[in-house]
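Audit log entry. Action: structure prediction of a protein-small molecule complex. Ligand: magnesium ion. The ligand was supplied as SMILES and no pocket hint was given, so placement is left entirely to the predictor. Protonation state taken as written. Sequence taken verbatim from the request; no trimming, no tag removal. Recorded inputs:
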Amino acid sequence: MTPSNLLSVNNLSLGVTRAKHPATTIVKDVSFGVDRGERFGIVGESGSGKSLTLRAIAGLLPQGIDVFGGEINYEGRDLLRVTPNERRALMGPEIAMVFQEPMTALNPVMRVGEQIAEGPRRHLGLSRKKADALAIEMMAKTGIPDPAKRSRAYPHELSGGLRQRIMIAMALSCQPKLLLCDEPTTALDVTVQHQVLRLLENLCDDFGAALVFVTHDLAVVNQTCETLAVMYAGHIVETGWVKDVFRDPRHPYTRGLLDSAPDFDQPNRPLRPIPGFPPNLAERPAGCSFAPRCAQVQAGCLDSSPTLMPVTANRTAACFETRTMFEGMPA
Ligand SMILES: Nc1ncnc2c1ncn2[C@@H]1O[C@H](COP(=O)(O)OP(=O)(O)OP(=O)(O)O)[C@@H](O)[C@H]1O
Ligand SMILES: [Mg+2]
């Protein structure tokens, strides 16, 4: 954590408590920091806890998921301890979220222009006329052709790519300092995905917004983010600059993820999927959660779980093997 962090998540744990069942921890001791204007990716297999982590920051945890511990500090305020009114005041002008499927977040019976204008009217106190004009301006900024006409459309009258641009326009309409994106381009075809990613990156730069970008797709992180955290079974197992992690992954899981994804620079490289499956979180192994699938597993990995430790400048990894290698290296 650095003093310039806009957001710092400290030892966040989330899980499920059910009557007559032992509590199941899903997200365990997750910590990371995001600076102003930084583009930070969270990547990992399905079920690793990426969306729950993001939703905890947005205050939108699904019913049945509880916070077991930790802090989410945003500009010195713990978001887990603010009142519902304080939270409502933050969402829009400070923090905004873009979801994977815009249809679930957009109101189907309201014109898209009005939906974009709602935030600026409520949070920035703009008149209806000014907010409508801002909505059209935001739609133009997100590259929507003929924005004045399209602002009168209902969500179902627009394509998936345009709806996602509407969501981005809506999220950025109050100029938040932090934009949370959960797989915002997964439902789009590859060319539209590329356009939307560039758009997000450019708009975040223009508005000076920091980005927390959740995806299972390494190529998308590589294209969009500067720094990343790799999640496995509810833990962060590696963090660092994207270019460093891709060039020299330090956790065997990150190495496995990179080996199992196509590399356009080396199209003839065979893909090597990671053997086995992520653990059932209700029966997490006693030691390292990745040990049952890890090619470098040692006896100690089965007994205790490694914590995230620095391995080089600006890099951390949660792996006994990596730490041993690092400790053996000359300073
Ligand atoms: N409301 C819920 N009640 C119980 N368990 C849940 C709930 N929501 C999520 N989970 C469980 O928590 C785990 C993590 O879920 P999460 O949605 O954060 O994963 P993810 O990393 O975003 O995966 P994906 O890439 O598929 O979106 C999963 O095993 C999921 O089954
Ligand atoms: Mg998810």
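Audit: result stored. The first strand starts at residue 5 and ends at 16. The radius of gyration is 21 Å.
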